């Protein structure tokens, strides 16, 4: 079971390395090359999200006593994914600003404050989203632990009842 997780990890590492390289190239490209690179990065980000989902499913199937290590790995992969998406958004914002400037003939100085304000708001929203996601993850883990405790208590109750019947 963990071998599937490890193969997903390797695929995720290769994919994120490719995405990082392509994100770095986006601002340097022009025209159709840039559009194609943006589309490729979007496709690869979707693949990475799907890999994360598969990894999460594998973690759920791992026995509870060894699940902690894999859960912490998943948190770091999700953080890495969030950083990649933020970097991609920044490169796309720069890309969309360039397109807008080309169309409007604007030099971009007049909207610099608005852009900075939007970037700040975007970062704030991303931080809030990450906090909400972390809270949700804690709630899910707490629910799983509670479920395991209830199962253990149920088994203990059955043992006690059987022992009482024997006596």
Automatic annotation (TrEMBL):
Domain of life of the source: Eukaryota
Gene3D superfamilies: 1.20.5.110, t-snare proteins
TM ranges: none
UniProt keyword list: Coiled coil, Golgi apparatus, Membrane, Protein transport, Transmembrane, Transmembrane helix, Transport
GO biological process terms, semicolon-separated: Golgi to vacuole transport; intra-Golgi vesicle-mediated transport; intracellular protein transport; macroautophagy; retrograde transport, endosome to Golgi; vesicle fusion with Golgi apparatus
Disordered as annotated region, ranges: 103-123
Family matches, as InterPro entries: SNARE, v-SNARE_N_sf, Vesicle_trsprt_v-SNARE_N
GO molecular function: SNAP receptor activity; SNARE binding
Membrane topology, record value: Single-pass type IV membrane protein; Single-pass membrane protein
UniProt entry tagged with the keyword Signal: no
Residue ranges of coiled coil: 31-61
Compartments, as annotated in UniProt: Endomembrane system; Golgi apparatus membrane
SUPFAM superfamilies referenced in this protein's UniProt entry, alphabetically: SNARE fusion complex, t-snare proteins
Keyword Kinase: no
Start-end of Basic and acidic residues biased regions: 114-123
Any one of the GO CC terms: cytosol
Domain Vesicle transport v-SNARE N-terminal residues, every copy: 1-91
Quaternary context: Interacts with distinct SNARE complexes that contain either STX5 or STX6. Interacts with NAPA and, to a lesser extent, with NAPG. Identified in a complex containing STX6, STX12, VAMP4 and VTI1A.
Family, as annotated: Belongs to the VTI1 family.
Name of the protein this chain belongs to: Vesicle transport through interaction with t-SNAREs homolog 1A
Species whose genome carries this gene: Origma solitaria
Lineage of the organism: Eukaryota, Metazoa, Chordata, Craniata, Vertebrata
């Amino acid at each position: 079971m963990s071998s599937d997780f490890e193969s997903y990890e390797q695929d995720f590492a290769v994919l994120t390395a490719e995405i990082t390289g392509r994100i770095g190239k986006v601002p340097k490209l022009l025209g159709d090359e840039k559009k194609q690179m943006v589309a490729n990065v979007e496709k690869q980000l979707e693949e990475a999200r799907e890999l994360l989902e598969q990894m999460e499913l594998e973690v759920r199937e791992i026995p509870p006593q060894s699940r902690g290590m894999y859960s912490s790995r998943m948190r770091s992969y999700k953080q890495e994914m969030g950083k990649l998406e933020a970097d991609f958004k920044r490169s796309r914002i720069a890309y969309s600003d360039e397109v807008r400037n080309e169309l409007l003939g604007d030099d971009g100085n007049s909207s610099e404050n608005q852009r900075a304000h939007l970037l700040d708001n975007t970062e704030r929203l991303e931080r809030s989203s990450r906090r909400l996601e972390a809270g949700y993850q804690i709630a899910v883990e707490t629910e799983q632990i509670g479920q395991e405790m209830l199962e253990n208590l149920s088994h203990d109750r059955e043992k006690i009842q059987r022992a009482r019947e024997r006596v």
